[in-house]
């Protein structure tokens, strides 16, 4: 009985003029999204292996600096030294096996990165998005595959809200208050946008553009992490504008 009423309610809601529908994904979009999920899983597996290697070596007195490159260099030198009293032959074999698995994951991730870079060169929309500071082939292909038809969003803020990058409003006693971002939508897309914004912020804050001027003013009154998220939200709005109007990003210089 409840199923019948739910179906009737859905059919009634579909006739409403204000109802918004989700566009269907094409086969190519689904393929790209699947590749991104596989890559994200491989990166997680690689991080877990790195942490495991660090913990094993730390228990035996080997403190390795942070960073994937430093860990790889220290590990390669450690495995070449056969007369290390801190590592037993069994632990040395085990660490070598885990390191081999790590190198295999590196090759898999690099192959997927090459594939995404090729897609960004051949796809017009993805190539257009790579002109935005902080957005590379990885972000561009993921956004194009997830967004699809950008006309689904009426404005840039709708896309930022869909990604969970807009402030959440809490109202008590008729007094609205803006708190942290909603964190709705795809966690992966939101993460890649924020990482791209963090990498681009040092360069943008020094540029003589409207975006750089806005960013410097924001950093003067807000925490750096808040500014990074705000920059990611602005990047999402720029993504919508470029896809909607078929343009490339051009930084406007501030008038003297």
Overview of this protein structure:
66% of the residues lie in helices and 5% in strands. The chain is mainly alpha-helical. A hairpin with a 2-residue loop joins strand 1 and strand 2. Helix 4 packs across helix 6 and helix 7 (156-162) packs across helix 10. The mean pLDDT is 91.
Question: What's a quick, concise take on this entry?
Answer:
With 256 residues, the chain is mainly alpha-helical. The protein is built from ten helices and two strands. It has two domains: 26-122; 149-256, no CATH class.
Counting structural domains, the number is 2
The Rg value, from CA coordinates, equals 24 Å
Question: How much helix is in the residues?
Answer: 55-70%
As a percent range, the share of strand residues is 5-15%
Kindly report the average pLDDT value: 91
Oligomer: single chain
pLDDT < 50 runs, ≥5 residues: none
Provide the succession of SSEs: HHHHHHHEEHHH
How would you describe the shape?
globular
Give the termini distance in whole angstroms. Answer: 70 Å
């Amino acid at each position: 009985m409840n199923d019948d009423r739910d179906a009737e309610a859905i059919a009634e809601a579909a006739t409403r003029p204000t109802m918004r529908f989700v566009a269907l994904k094409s086969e190519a979009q689904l393929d790209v999204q699947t590749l991104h999920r596989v890559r994200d899983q491989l990166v997680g597996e690689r991080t877990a292996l790195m942490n495991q290697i660090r913990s094993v070596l730390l228990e035996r007195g080997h403190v390795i600096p942070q960073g994937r490159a430093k860990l790889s260099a220290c590990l390669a030198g450690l495995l070449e030294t056969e007369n290390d009293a801190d590592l037993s032959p069994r632990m040395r074999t085990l660490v070598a096996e885990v390191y081999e698995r790590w190198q295999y994951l590196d090759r898999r991730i690099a192959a997927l990165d090459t594939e995404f870079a090729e897609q960004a060169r051949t796809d017009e929309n993805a190539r257009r998005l790579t002109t935005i500071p902080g957005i590379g082939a990885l972000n561009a292909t993921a956004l194009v595959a997830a967004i699809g038809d950008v006309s689904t969003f009426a404005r840039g803020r709708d896309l930022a809200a869909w990604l969970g990058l807009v402030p959440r409003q809490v109202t008590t006693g008729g007094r609205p208050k803006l708190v942290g971002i909603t964190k709705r939508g795809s966690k992966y897309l939101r993460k890649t946008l924020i990482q791209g914004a963090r990498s681009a912020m040092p360069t943008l804050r020094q540029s003589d553009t409207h975006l750089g001027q806005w960013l410097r003013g924001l950093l003067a009154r807000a925490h750096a992490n808040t500014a990074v998220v705000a920059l990611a939200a602005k990047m999402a709005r720029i993504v919508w504008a470029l896809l909607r109007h078929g343009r490339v990003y051009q930084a406007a210089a501030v008038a003297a």
